[in-house]
Amino acid sequence: MIQLTHTIGPEYKPLWSPDGSMVLYLGRVRDHRCKESDAELPKIYVISGKGGNPVDLTAPLDRWSMSPDWSDDSQRIYFTAQNSGKVGLYVVPKEGGKVDLLFEEKGQVLDFCIGKSGEKFIVHTDFTHPAEIYRIDEKGSIKMTSFHQDLVDEVEIVESEHFSFPSFDGLTIEGWLMKPYGFKEEKKYPLIHAIHGGPHGQYGYNLSRTAMYQFLAAKGYAVMFINYRGSSGRGQEFSDLIVGDLCGNEYKDLMVGLDYVLENYSFIDPERLGVTGGSYGGYLTNWAITHTDRYKAAIPVACISDILTDWANDSNPLWFESDGGFMPIDNFEKAWDLSPIKYVKYCKTPTLFIHGAWDFCTNLNQPETMFTALKKLGVETVLAIYPNEGHGINRYPSHVHDYYLRSLAWFDRYLK
Fold it and tell me: Looking at the whole model, is its pTM more than 0.85?
């Protein structure tokens, strides 16, 4: 047995080349990092099967890279990478060097396959089209399947409009706005501000990722969602901007983004604003409702309320040490300062907490703490706990259905 790598960071998904000479893998080099939530972009490496120095194939790209695979002749590596809400297909020689973009549109490549004769097939989606298989060549893409044609024919899916704005410090932030179904310019509509989790994830051109927003749009809501600093589609420097600054400048991005949308889309009613988010987005939702009263209804999903107890019970406590920049037991005061529960007495927003009973990433004590406090303070609140669900509500269709309807009823109650 030979140990091939000697970095302090994690390596995963190793794959032998077809000729058996090299190993391809994803990896990071920073210490005390974890796969689940990490500012460091995963990179693609190759190393000789006999050992030696690994080659970082994706260094010229500076993007979150995924799903590497070998060409049949062991000479090239194909992979996907995020880029400002898109996910494209790339190729690079096994020796490293120039990375070539093979396909990227306003959509996301979810999977791919390279045939023995070099044919390229992808699974692709965007905001208005479910995932289908396409063949790509130098002229573009050719649709090969129509698995979801009935859905496309029967359901009108709302497009999302891209926008960008300078944040408080001049940094450009990107986002999208989904107009309500049957939109009329002369009407005023309520707005749902949706916040992604991670924090190192990205919103983008993906119908399944925005399915709930389509549901809300169908019921008369506008929905906005942005990739605040720390999101994963803009390179390493952008991703690192959140490290050691949780609920800081990324929260300012959210507020400036909301101001931008209100100033530039006159059909939005500033008196009927709601907010929701999952995981880290649930944490930011709790932070928002304890720091501003501009939202009239909130739905934190799989949220965090107390950094110290979340860190102590989290199945993956390293996420906070890597993104927060310290270990909570080394600085109780700072951990408390970053906890929404510290500021709960300022919350006036009716809040529906959505949580899985088996969530071991953000344990059930997180929404319970906020819920109990809001109850004591006389703020309208409900805690919906879904049995046999983990981090997010996605295991059982009946639970997803209830989550959608329950959320709609909550927003309708306070925004309509």
Answer: yes
